[in-house]
Structures are given as structure tokens and as C-alpha cells.
Amino acid sequence: MLPWTTYEAMTAAALTQPETFWLEAAQRITWKQPPATACRVRKDGWYDWFTGATLNTCHNALDRHVENGRADQTALVWHSCATKEQQSITYEALQGRVAGFAGGLRALGVGKGDRVLISMPTMIETAIAMLACARLGAVHVVVFAGYAGPELAARIDDVAPKVIITASCSFQGRTAISSTPALQEALARATHTAQACIIVQRAACPTRLMAGRDYDFHTLELAAPVPPVPVMAEDPLYILHTSGTTGKAKGIVRDNGGHAVALALSMELVYGCQPGDTFFTTSDLGWVVGHSYGVYAPLISGCTSVIVEGSASASTIRTLCAEHAVTCLFTTPTQMRLIRQESRHICPPAPPTLARIFVAGEYADPTLLDWARSYFQRPVVNHWWQTETGWSITAHFFGLHEPEPTNLANEIGRPAPGFRPVIAPALPGEPCGEIMLALPLPPGCLAGVWREHSIHAPDLYLDDTGQYYRSFDEGMIDTDHAVRMLGRSDDVIKVSGRRISGIQIEKIIAIHPAVHSCAVVAVADTLRGQRPVAYVVIDTGADTPPTADDLITEVNKTLGRWTGLRDIHFVEALPTTKSGKITRKALATAQSL
Ligand code: AMP
To answer: Does the beta carbon of 291 sit less than 6 angstroms from any atom of ligand 1?
Structure first.
């Protein structure tokens, strides 16, 4: 039960008595040594949470639920959109497999603090590998399975793993792609040599194991089970590299204690979930949402988690929701647009247990959110996240008793407890600018950046005063605390000295019913300095696609002609990162060549 019923009471408690607030929140976790303090400044100037306390994250995710009556509850449901396989595993069975695999890792010499690189698609085995590392106090580094050899090699050299775990293949659509060439290339390129490779053999594309180097995943699981190893709250649980949307990939370090507390609180507060509920995230486990809400948060909270390999269609999502009594669905705007494209003219009844839907990861235009509400006949909200923060910076709070203000429905919400955003305007007096977060950040956020084989204070994220974390996102904050997102700082367009975010224009273009997605970027203009250019994807099967003039007229009507929008390019698709986010920078670069 949450101790506050209103947003005002909750934020006041977090602001005025942060130690009490977070020590109370910490009671959601089972500790070996419970914390006596919440936040402490570290020697390097960054912050540690719950110093002096000890726990094991895997114990919190599995063992304690098995001991407390959830042994037979389904812990994970996995569906492969590529092979159509489906597996469910109970808490007790998952605990047994994780403990056995941890024993296999230990037999290969993996112990506390050692890094284990996991380059796998979303599978039950990926979650087993992550949880087995957590059980041993080892640090997992999950790498998106679609990376080519050089990208994999860079991550191997960055974290120097003792062991590498991979699946024999991953899938692009329904086509199996052998992992062997990328792995061989990465091992040859990397200067670091891992002691062993562990392979999950997949029926679609088994590989030959190299004697002395490779071990079979499922054979290792048969090792004698090991109990959870207590670790310090501030010890690292994992390293996750940023997707590269925000420049060169950085290894974000997450601790054990703060992470477990923040995720447990968020399940109740943000998502309104109770133990026994089912949470479904469509994110790949290689990204932060997959880590947080595919594996750790639902399991720490005694929920069932549904995970999928590949991109789930609208009908697959609906079927999984209905079959597994899903309460919360967490997806991306890109996935939601695909659902819309598939379901424009079909509106079957909503899965009965589904209570609410969340999107995050990139801008979601109001037209899309409104469509999703009418399709699912449920609340659909957008919230703001970064790999660095590990949970939502701003959100809508379904665990509070008061309803969310309706005027915020299409915004990214209000700050989660402990996040204190301020705006740093580019020009004095402007209401919008970069969103900065006052330090310390709440628990669950980055414990540092992994560099030269150790954890460093994340100096590259600090402003000149050293008091604020730079989000590199632009926005504004209203008097009701609502944060309005305007996009990445470097996506802001300056037209004759006036600043406009591309998404302000995208929002207008997206209203046209035939528009599937769009991106607006800046190009150099001799007269104005910069002007916007729009790239528009039309929905397949759209009856009446707009002309460029139709869209320009709409933008001019709403914003005025000053924006100087005159070029609309109709394209088949927009460039995206591996995590599916539109890369506006790539479009801007292409335009300026
Ligand atoms: P990543 O760390 O790769 O997940 O990217 C984080 C970035 O995604 C943020 O800094 C934002 O630019 C963007 N982002 C995340 N959530 C949202 C959202 N709800 N609305 C708009 N942009 C978002």
C-alpha cells in the first residue's frame, strides 16, 4: 500500500524528507542487512544509495516469492514472433534453472564483480542468464543480438567479460541469422579474450561448438544449484550501453539496492500493479525497458512478465493479453503506429483484464495516443525515460487514489518522486530549454559510467555548476508540474532566431489520417539560418493520401508561415536506431550533403 493518496502529498514527502521517503520505499525489498541510510555522497562526488545494506537482487526476484507462496505462479511467458514458439515458466522452475545456471557459471570461474556479456535475442534463457549473474553478484552486460562484429567487439573491449553468452541465431523477421560470423569477427577483433563462450542452441540454426572454448547453455544449467550471494547495495548489478541516440555508446552502470527499490516502487506507483498481476512489455531485453520491465520490476514485484522476441503484430498482442490476463501493456510509439496500421478498420473488444497501456522511448503524437485509447478502450499514457535513469523521470501515477489530470493525458506527465527538473533556457526569459535534473537523482538511476574497467562519476552529464544532471532533452514545465517534451536538444530548429521543435510541426502533420509517421529536421537556410524539412510516411492502404501542399497549409494555419516549411518528402520509411527510434540526425545529415 502506498502511504500517500495524492501527487502533492507524495512529492512533498520526497522533497522535504527524502531519507525517510526512500527508507520507507526500501521496505518493499528483502535485505540481508537492511539500510540505515538512504543517499550518501561518494568519494568521487557522485551518489550511492543504501550504503551499508546488503541484498541479492535475484533472491528478491525469485527465491522470496517461491518461499512466500508464489512457487506455482507463472513468472515468465515468452513468445517468439519469429518461430511462433511459446513457453511459460513458474517461479519455482525459473529459480531452479537460474540457480543451476549460476552453478555452471561459477564452475567456469565467474564470481562477484566479474562481467558477463550476454548477446542474445529476447528469450527465457536471456532472463535466466541475467538473473544467474545477479545471483552470483556478477555484472551482466546485455548487448542487442543484432549488432555486427565490430560493435560487439567494442563492447567486449569496454567491459572485458570473463564469459560471453550467445544464442546460435537470432531472427530478422522470420529469417534466422546465424550468430557465429558476428561472434567470430568480434572475438578476432577484440583485444580482450573471454575465457569461455556459452551457446544456446536453437533448433532453427544450431552451431558447432568449439572444443575448449564453447559450452552448451542447457548442459551448464544442470550444474549443482548455488544460493544467492549477498552484495552491497551499491555493488553493480549490470552495465547497459546507451543506444547511441545520444552520441557514442556509454556503459551505464546500475547498482543493486537503489535499482530494486525504485523498480518495486514504480510498479505500484506508476503502473498501478499488484503482486499476481501480469505485465507485458514489447521491448527487447537488450534495451533498458526490457531490463527494467521485462525482467526485474515484474519479478521483484511478484508479477507475471510477458516478453516477446521480435516485433509483435496487433493480433499477437491482443492474443497474448487475453491468454495471459495482462493488466499492463508497455510498448513504444513505433509499435503503436504499426498496430494502428494493421488495425485501422478493425476494432475488436478490448482484452478484459487489460487496465492501462504505457508508451515511452520517443515522441508520441496526440493523434496516435487518441487512436490507441479508442482502439483499446483503456487509458493510454506516454512517459519519459532514459537508459541512464532506468525508470520513468516523468509519469502518470496509476497507483495514487486521485485520477490523473485529464489535461495531461497527451503529455509525458509529472516528475516521479526524487526527480527535480528545472529548465535551462537557451535565451534568457524563454519558457523552454534543456531539462536539467537537480542532484542527487533518485535511486535506480545511473550509479556511474563504466570506463577503463571501473565505475566513474558521470561527469559528462553534469552542467557547469556540477549541481544538475543534463538530460539533453528540451522541454518546458508548467505550473501544475507537468513537463512538456520538445525533443532532443540538438533537434531544435532555429528559424530567424526563433526556436521551434520539430515535434511541434510533426504533431500537426500527424493529424492527417493517412500519415503513418513523420520526422521534421532542420536544414541550413541562407535567409533564416535554419528552416524545417519534413519526411512523411503514408500509411499503406491509405484511401486519400495528402499532398505536400495540404500538409504545409495545415502547419501554416496552426503555427504561421514563419517556420518556412516548404519541403515535404514522402518516403517509404524513416531511418531508425536498432531500438526502433527515428534518427532525425541521420535525416538532417543526409539533407545537408
Ligand atoms: P534511450 O536512452 O536510448 O532509451 O533514449 C532516451 C531518449 O529517448 C530520451 O532522452 C528522449 O530523447 C527520448 N524519449 C524517451 N521517452 C520519451 C517520451 N516519452 N517522449 C519523447 N521522447 C522520449
So the answer is: no
Angle at 232 between CA 156 and CA 271, to 5 degrees: 80
The closest alpha carbon to 96, from 140, 132, 56, belongs to: 132
Q: Which amino acid is at 252?
A: I
pLDDT (tens digit, 0 to 9) for every residue of the chain, 593 residues total? 899 999 999 999 999 999 999 999 999 999 999 999 999 999 999 999 999 999 999 999 999 999 999 999 999 999 999 999 999 999 999 999 999 999 999 999 999 999 999 999 999 999 999 999 999 999 999 999 988 999 999 999 999 999 999 999 999 989 999 999 999 999 999 999 999 999 999 999 999 999 999 999 999 999 999 999 999 999 999 999 986 555 568 999 999 999 999 999 999 999 999 999 999 999 999 999 999 999 999 999 999 999 999 999 999 999 999 999 999 999 999 999 999 988 877 778 888 999 999 999 999 999 999 999 999 999 999 999 999 999 999 999 999 989 889 999 999 999 999 999 999 998 888 888 999 999 999 999 999 999 999 999 999 999 999 999 999 999 999 988 999 998 888 788 888 878 888 989 999 999 999 999 999 999 888 888 889 999 999 998 788 999 999 999 999 998 888 899 999 999 999 988 888 888 887 887 766 55
Q: Which of 385, 470, 501 to mutate to test the pocket of ligand 1 (most atoms within 8 A of CB)?
A: 385
Q: Which residues pair with 356 in a beta bridge?
A: 328
> Cα separation of 21 and 180, whole Å?
49
Neighbours of 93 (CB within 10 A): 17
- Is 361 near ligand 1, meaning CB less than 6 Å away? yes
Tell whether the torsion through CA atoms of 57, 60, 66 and 67 is positive or negative: positive
d(CA 305, CA 281): 8
Pairing of strands 196-200, 214-216: parallel
Question: Which H or E run includes 374?
Answer: helix 366-376
Domains, the chain, with CATH or none: 91-229 (3.40.50.980), 496-592 (3.30.300.30)
Q: Can you tell me whether residue 254 is helix, strand or coil?
A: strand
Tell me which H or E stretch contains 140: strand 139-144
Whole-model pTM? 0.94
User: How many Å apart are CA 583 and CA 567, to the nearest integer?
Assistant: 19
Closest CA to 396 of 441, 353, 433, 364: 364
CB 156 within 8 A of CB 132: no
Q: Is the CB of 240 under 6 A from ligand 1?
A: no
Euclidean distance between CA atoms 343 and 540, whole angstroms:
12
Work out whether the CA dihedral 294, 462, 53, 136 comes out positive or negative.
positive
Rounded to the nearest whole angstrom, what is the distance from the C-alpha of residue 385 to the centroid of ligand 1? Answer: 5
| C-alpha cell, 562 | 514563419
- Reference 115, options 136, 101, 96; nearest CA is 136
Centre of ligand 1 to C-alpha 359, Å, is: 11
Alpha carbon of 294 to those of 115, 279, 569: distances in Å? 21, 8, 37
For residue 288, the ligand 1 atom closest to its alpha carbon is 4
